[in-house]
Amino acid sequence: MGLLTIIRKSNHKERQLRILFLGLDNSGKSTIVKRLLNAPDWQEQSPTLGFEIHSLPFDLAHGNDETAKSQQAVRRGRQFTLNLWDIGGQRTLRPYWRNYFERTDGLVWVVDSHDAARLAECREELWSLVVAEERLASASLLVLANKQDVPGAKGLEEVRRTLRLDELAKQRGATVKVMACSAVRGDGYNEGMKWLVGDCERRLYWGSSTMQGTVAVKAVNDEAGNTAPTIAAA
Ligand SMILES: Nc1nc2c(ncn2[C@@H]2O[C@H](COP(=O)(O)OP(=O)(O)OP(=O)(O)O)[C@@H](O)[C@H]2O)c(=O)[nH]1
Ligand SMILES: [Mg+2]
């Protein structure tokens, strides 16, 4: 067993997940990460020149909602520590993205839904990562259609179509979840993260936890009884 495999197993035992935030520059990755961290300075954003790592305690019942956690007993065994990797998306930085792929459990692809002119570029980058990169093949994939608060922003369906997410899910043989969100309004991303962490949990722990069997929820049976990957739109 290689060293990386040992580290990965040990992280999973401690319920640590490695989550990458990727997407074109200006899509809102850092803003979403700061919102998840409940950082008071989430509005003070400048382009990420490299990467930042943050650790986030995350509870599958409540996400990052501290108030809800203090009001209810925390359900044992469904808590995780998320290591969030917020990576700069500028074109000159993209060749370095591949340096971060090792041991990735979940990928959050953030889209600026208002930047119609760059949706095609966004699709090319996403596809070149997810289809060509073996180290991401088994990662859970969440697409956040961000900036829904901006008038004229493309809706969920249009983002899904333009990024050809149905086709992408088929190619990967795994669910792709796409959710609308607005980092400014503060909606969508927490739900998205709950799905992502739940999906990681099902993949990594379902054999030994109460989640066994629920993985079938994500697949649809066609008439011939074959299971097919699904696109789950919120
Ligand atoms: N209106 C609106 N603006 C947003 C939203 N999310 C982020 N922004 C703004 O978009 C700009 C870019 O946000 P960042 O979070 O820095 O984007 P990024 O994806 O981290 O960019 P890079 O680090 O360059 O890759 C900032 O001015 C944010 O305030 C949103 O949901 N709605
Ligand atoms: Mg950034």
UniProtKB/TrEMBL annotation:
<feature type="binding site">
    <location>
        <begin position="146"/>
        <end position="149"/>
    </location>
    <ligand>
        <name>GTP</name>
    </ligand>
</feature>
<comment type="similarity">
    <text>Belongs to the small GTPase superfamily. Arf family.</text>
</comment>
<feature type="binding site">
    <location>
        <position position="30"/>
    </location>
    <ligand>
        <name>Mg(2+)</name>
    </ligand>
</feature>
<keyword id="KW-0460">Magnesium</keyword>
<keyword id="KW-0547">Nucleotide-binding</keyword>
<keyword id="KW-0479">Metal-binding</keyword>
<feature type="binding site">
    <location>
        <position position="89"/>
    </location>
    <ligand>
        <name>GTP</name>
    </ligand>
</feature>
<keyword id="KW-0342">GTP-binding</keyword>
<dbReference type="InterPro" id="IPR044612">
    <property type="entry name" value="ARL2/3"/>
</dbReference>
<dbReference type="Pfam" id="PF00025">
    <property type="entry name" value="Arf"/>
</dbReference>
<dbReference type="InterPro" id="IPR006689">
    <property type="entry name" value="Small_GTPase_ARF/SAR"/>
</dbReference>
<protein>
    <submittedName>
        <fullName>ARF/SAR superfamily</fullName>
    </submittedName>
</protein>
<dbReference type="GO" id="GO:0046872">
    <property type="term" value="F:metal ion binding"/>
</dbReference>
<dbReference type="GO" id="GO:0005525">
    <property type="term" value="F:GTP binding"/>
</dbReference>
<feature type="binding site">
    <location>
        <position position="48"/>
    </location>
    <ligand>
        <name>Mg(2+)</name>
    </ligand>
</feature>
<feature type="binding site">
    <location>
        <begin position="23"/>
        <end position="30"/>
    </location>
    <ligand>
        <name>GTP</name>
    </ligand>
</feature>
<dbReference type="GO" id="GO:0003924">
    <property type="term" value="F:GTPase activity"/>
</dbReference>
<dbReference type="InterPro" id="IPR027417">
    <property type="entry name" value="P-loop_NTPase"/>
</dbReference>
